[in-house]
Amino acid sequence: MNTILKILSVLILLAVATGFYYRSTGDPAMGDKIIGLAVLSFSFVLLPLFLVHRWRGKKLEDYTLSDKNLKKMKERNKKRWE
After folding, report:
1. What is the pLDDT of residues 57-82, one digit of tens each?
2. What domain count does the chain have?
């Protein structure tokens, strides 16, 4: 999964660079299309894959503000200030 993310990020960066090249050489419509597709692929392909990769094996309960976690935080703060 890590290599797939690296390859996709390099390809997307190359696509953005290619789009800016096309915009500067005289075909702005094609450049805008390439940049737009690169941004869409980043948003809808690379970012979700990255988030799945980073969240795999972690509990969402540890990162949410539930009553249990709020009590733990209050207890820690009391111990620090004492």
Report:
1. 888 777 788 888 888 888 888 777 76
2. 1
Burial of 43 by CB count in 10 Å (0-12 exposed, 13-18 middle, 19+ buried)? exposed
pLDDT tens string 23-51: 999 889 999 999 999 999 999 999 999 99
What angle is formed at CA 17 by the lines to CA 21 and CA 33, rounded to 5 degrees? 75
Vertex 11 angle, CA 9 and 17, to 5°: 105
Residues 44, 46, 50, 56, CA torsion sign: positive
The domain of 7 spans 2-81
Contact 38, 16 (CB under 8 A): yes
pTM above 0.85, yes or no: no
